[in-house]
Amino acid sequence: MTARLRVCPQKAPLHGSVPIASDVSIANRALIFAALGDGTSTLSGYSGAGHNELMRQGLAQLGALSERDGTTLRIEGVGIRGLRPSGAEIDCGDSREVFELLSGLVAPQPFKTRLKASGRLLDRPCNALVASLRTFGTPATGTMGTFSTGELFPPVQFNGATGNALAPGGDYQLDVCQPGIKSALLFAGLFASGPTQVVESVVTRDHTERLLDTVGFRLSRAASLLCLEPPEPNADIAPFEMELPGDITLASWLLASAAVVPDSHVVIRRTGINPSRAGVLDVFKAMGAGLNVRAEGHRGGEPVGELTMLGAGLRALNLEGELSCRTVNEFPILALLSVRAQGRSELSLEQLETTDNPEIAGRTAELLLRFGVRAGLSDGVLQIDGDPNAQLRAATVDAADDPQLILLALSLALLADGESVISGIDGIANVFPRMVGTFKALGANLSVESEDATNGS
């Protein structure tokens, strides 16, 4: 059954205090470490997002079973050397992160593993990932592109590390923003006989590094250089308990909506505030938003806090350089803020090609135009002419099951002059299972209906 979303204009400020769904990226990495543990590990605050469920199923196929009880997940670890061949290909869905992390996990194993994909991931080249992992002694094959010579696409089969000896590790230089490949190399490095060194041109999200520290591996960082020492021959990961932090990107959608709806007051609880992911918080402050961050300690090596947004006037944004990389996954959020900022904002697109959604800039521009925003793409920049008092035009749009577009369309619809209808919303379950309930808790007027039922009436 497909669904669509009806969103009414926001007549009153958004107001309330809500938790946010657990961070999908942190949960995926925690699942892997729990699977490699020697015993039962427990993750609490687990949201059951679709991309986490893909990771959970993939690990089950490799022998690490888990059991869910509400928001608590218990994983039976098989030990670092205990993974076993999957009886079937592993489905990574449309998640580039799941594909990259599982690639790093299975590439050094002494058995064949085939990873398949669906949706937009089928069109994403994976040459850099596969080439890096081949150095761990694993021959790999994939689908060659029809029109692009030399490009490799999913599905990919890792044919098993050659011989019984562990790979020696290696030195790797990453281009621009490649946190998924960095993490894949670090996971593969757990099965190496020598150090694995990774150099980043720009420091990216460090959830894998924090968890490596937490479970006791020897990892050092000097500026942009990471060095993972190989585990001792009989090393084990002790079972652990971890309360998963809330997702800072999802929290930022709620904060941004509060920033553009006048007089709003929104509090987001138990949110991850990892500095490597907090570029979007820096943007809020640079644009003059009424953001307050209150630190509340650490969970599983991750800093967490309470985020409060008070509606305030916004300044236009010129996004480029290092901050562009640090907010690459929040690009549509910055576009939303720019709609109600004073003046013209310019958002550089230079880092978007490294993401799992390089078309997001064009699709963001299309959505803005559908809602009556003055915006356009020019010379690698999205230009948005903001107006603090602008009332947008109600629209009927298709978000193409893209979570970022779904959230952007919903947030723009709050500013419209009438009811808006958003189709193609099923993909939100992959990252934000309780999106509708969370927005309703803040006072938004929206409802979900079946497209099938509507079309049949």
Offer a quick outline of the entry.
The protein has helices at 24-35, 50-61, 96-106, 127-134, 179-189, 207-215, 248-260, 279-286, 321-326, 331-339, 360-370, 403-413, 435-441, 451-456, and strands at 3-7, 15-19, 40-44, 66-69, 72-76, 90-91, 113-116, 140-144, 152-158, 170-174, 196-200, 219-222, 225-228, 241-243, 265-272, 290-299, 302-310, 314-315, 318-319, 341-348, 374-378, 381-386, 396-398, 420-423, 446-450.
Write structural notes for this entry.
It is a single chain. The mean pLDDT is 92. Helix 3 packs parallel to helix 5 (179-189) and helix 11 (360-370) runs parallel beside helix 12. The longest helix is centred in the middle third of the chain and has 13 residues, at 248-260. The chain folds into two domains: 3-21 and 246-456, UDP-n-acetylglucosamine1-carboxyvinyl-transferase, Chain (Alpha-beta prism); 24-167 and 176-187, Alpha-beta prism (UDP-n-acetylglucosamine1-carboxyvinyl-transferase, Chain). Helix content is 29%, strand content 27%. The protein is built from 14 helices and 25 strands. The strands form six sheets. Strands 18, 19, 20, 21 and 22 form a five-stranded mixed sheet that branches. By secondary structure, it is α/β, with parallel strands linked by helices. Strand 16 (290-299) and strand 17 form a beta hairpin.
How are the SSEs placed, and which strands pair?
Blueprint: E1 3-7, E2 15-19, H1 24-35, E3 40-44, H2 50-61, E4 66-69, E5 72-76, E6 90-91, H3 96-106, E7 113-116, H4 127-134, E8 140-144, E9 152-158, E10 170-174, H5 179-189, E11 196-200, H6 207-215, E12 219-222, E13 225-228, E14 241-243, H7 248-260, E15 265-272, H8 279-286, E16 290-299, E17 302-310, E18 314-315, E19 318-319, H9 321-326, H10 331-339, E20 341-348, H11 360-370, E21 374-378, E22 381-386, E23 396-398, H12 403-413, E24 420-423, H13 435-441, E25 446-450, H14 451-456
Parallel strand pairs: 2-15, 3-14, 6-7, 10-11, 18-20, 19-20, 23-24
Antiparallel strand pairs: 1-24, 1-25, 3-5, 4-5, 7-9, 8-9, 11-13, 12-13, 15-17, 16-17, 20-22, 21-22
Helix pairs in contact: 1-2, 1-3, 1-6, 3-5, 4-5, 7-10, 10-11, 11-12
